[in-house]
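FW: tagging you since you asked about this chain on Friday. Here's the raw sequence from the shared folder, copied in full. Didn't touch anything.
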Amino acid sequence: MSVFKQLTINKSMVEDGILSLKNNDVTHYVFDEKLLPLNVYKIVLKAAKDIDFVVILRENSTLVTYEIAPYSRGKIMFVCEEEDVIAKREIHLLEGAEINLIMPDFYNGSRKLNIETKLLGRKARAEWHLATYSLNKDKKIFNISFSHYGNESFANMHNYGVVLNESTLIFTGESTIYEEVKGAETHQTARIIVFDKGSHAQADPILNIYHNDVIAASHAATVGQVNAEHLYYLKSRGLTEKEAKQLITKGYLMPILNYIDDKVLKENFTTALERVI
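HL: got it, structure written out here
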């Protein structure tokens, strides 16, 4: 049985458009954005123990910000259900905040997501992990960015994807270290496997460095056809081409599930991924 429960919002949590979640409210809760009051534009997460929080993203024309309070730490998992989603979100990390941002996107539907992580405080740290696929004629566009405003801030981005049929998958990763920001470090990795000739895949890494005092800044991006030798080897061992593609897809995308501790959530995502092909 999952330890996660649906979060219930009451009026005492909201003041001047800010929803404040503390301690027990940010551990083992699922927050569905369709329940977000219309006047709320910011959600503040603060906890003495590690945050473990799931957000179901919903289409919303309003910019919604998730703010991680100083010295809070843990992980937030973003999920899209089997529907089209267009959304813009910001994650703000204050001084000493450390967060893992995880998105196992294993459901059908088109996406256009703009998610910016602003490292506002000194020694703020963020890790972003996205694993996704596009299927049939879905169009998935992920614009993921890091903006370093705090000294000694650190960010690391990992985007992995698989493209099938006549679908589209686009990763744009942008990392910016602003002027006067000292000792920052930022990295990006993007990898996309293409199975079919009719599909479209694109990975665009961007680095904007406006200060010389940088620990490190890097990006790596590859988009390529599935290795024909790998397919041949698997088929020579008795697998059909469909089974071989499914095995490769699972091997490529499933490592993100290592960041999920809850057994029920992990099983649900595994089942969803197994339905891909």
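FW: The helical segments are 228-236, 241-253, 263-274.
HL: agreed, and Residues 5-225 form one domain.
FW: great, closing this out.
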